[in-house]
């Protein structure tokens, strides 16, 4: 259904291997943290605006920005004088949360002023009191240019605490030289591919895709539907059918040629050094999601954090990011700009998907009773 071949732009196996070690980089010291509000105490604080100066630390996923001396970080530093420590240390939502929670519970952010988290994790952190709210008046470019479809999501209908970074789809990356026939998530359970398939650690990506392949609507699924899908995945893992459950480092196996297919995210072409790798829309549809910029409690420089958020919502800046990362931009006007730069890119269904292309896709959601389902899932991915 309108897939695209990989657009590797010089990403190397060295970069890919570094992503695999991302979890080890999460131990950033909390020195320099100024507590703004206590985590988990029910207090809600609003990020304070001011002069955009000083230092800014941003935690993001790998390969999620245009790098280099002409990239967005360098441009922001040149324009504001802010020194940015941009760290690609998020490999998996749960792992990142687990590392930071002890500090967040104490009202500290681990030295970071911005996290980039998937919808459900942003909501979870907010409900626990770990995130600050934002004043729309402090973000004029954001709320002028934010795409209408992202203005009132169910997890944050008033955009009180989250600003979309990028959106994307979860489907299947296929090595077309080895298994061109793979189109459905059901194909990943074919014994021919034993030991040559990976599925993401992210429960809300992997499990709903398996449910969809079985004819179950994830948005209407019962806890038993979730358990049934998890049982199927567990059996495949126990038999050796599934090679492993990676986070963003799933790209390592695709790059190295260790797998024929992987459940993965639509915009990761620039990270996968394999000319035969192609993201495919599963026969039964994909999962839709957004990753969001949020400001944690204890963020040491909220003025710079707000400045960064507003800066990347300038359409010209957002277009530079989109051109590199090839995810769905949340910023209005990006498509028009890219149509002049690269008309083919502006027609790419993975960057500017039509309703028809996404007609069978579902939004990410949690099971009705999360605890027992999450416990069952954790037992699968941890072996």
Tell me which CATH architecture of the largest domain applies here.
Answer: 3-Layer(aba) Sandwich
Strand content: 5-15%
Largest sheet: 11 strands, mixed
| Structure annotation, total helices | 13
The CATH superfamily name of the largest domain is: Periplasmic binding protein-like II
Please mark out the parts with pLDDT under 50 across 5 or more consecutive residues, or reply none.
1-38
The coarse silhouette is globular
Our measurement of the CA-to-CA distance between the termini, rounded to an integer number of angstroms, reads: 34 Å
CATH fold description of the largest domain? D-Maltodextrin-Binding Protein, domain 2
The assigned structural class equals alpha/beta
- Indicate the radius of gyration in whole angstroms: 20 Å
- Percent helix among the residues? 25-40%
Give the ordered list of helices and strands: EHEHEHEHHEEHHEHEEEHHHHEH
Mean pLDDT: 91
Strand tally is: 11
Number of domains: 2
The top-level CATH class of the largest domain is: Alpha Beta
């Amino acid at each position: 259904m309108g897939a695209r071949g990989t657009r590797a732009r010089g990403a190397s196996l060295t970069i890919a291997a570094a992503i695999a070690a991302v979890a080890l980089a999460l131990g950033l010291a909390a020195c320099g943290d100024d507590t703004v509000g206590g985590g988990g105490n029910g207090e809600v604080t609003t990020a304070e605006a001011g002069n955009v100066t000083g230092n800014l630390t941003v935690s993001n996923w790998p390969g999620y920005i245009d790098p280099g001396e002409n990239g967005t970080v360098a441009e922001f530093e040149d324009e504001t004088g802010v020194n940015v420590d941009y760290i690609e240390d998020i490999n998996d939502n749960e792992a990142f949360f687990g590392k930071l929670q002890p500090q967040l519970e104490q009202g500290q952010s681990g030295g970071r002023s911005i996290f980039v988290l998937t919808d459900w994790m942003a909501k979870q952190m907010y409900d626990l009191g770990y995130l600050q709210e934002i004043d729309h008046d402090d973000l004029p470019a954001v709320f002028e240019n934010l795409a209408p479809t992202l203005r009132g999501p169910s997890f944050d209908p008033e955009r009180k605490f989250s600003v979309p970074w990028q959106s994307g789809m979860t489907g299947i990356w296929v090595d077309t030289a080895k298994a061109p026939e793979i189109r459905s998530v059901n194909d990943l359970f074919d014994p021919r591919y034993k030991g040559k398939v990976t599925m993401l650690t992210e429960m809300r990506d992997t499990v709903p895709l398996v449910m969809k392949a079985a004819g179950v609507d994830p948005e209407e699924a019962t806890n038993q539907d979730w358990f049934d899908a998890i049982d199927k995945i567990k059996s495949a893992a126990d038999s050796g059918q599934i090679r492993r459950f990676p986070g963003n480092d799933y790209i390592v196996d695709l790059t190295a040629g260790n797998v024929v297919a992987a459940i993965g995210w639509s915009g990761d072409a620039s990270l996968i050094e394999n000319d035969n790798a192609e993201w495919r829309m599963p026969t039964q549809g994909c999962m839709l999601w957004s990753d969001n910029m949020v400001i944690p409690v204890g963020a040491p420089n909220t003025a710079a954090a707000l400045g960064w958020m507003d800066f990347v919502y300038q359409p010209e800046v957002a277009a530079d990011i989109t051109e590199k990362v090839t995810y769905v931009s949340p910023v209005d006007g990006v498509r028009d700009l890219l149509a002049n730069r690269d008309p083919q890119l502006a027609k790419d269904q993975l960057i500017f998907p039509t309703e028809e292309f996404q007609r069978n896709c579902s939004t990410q959601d949690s099971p009705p009773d999360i605890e027992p389902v999450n416990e069952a899932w954790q037992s699968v991915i941890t072996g």
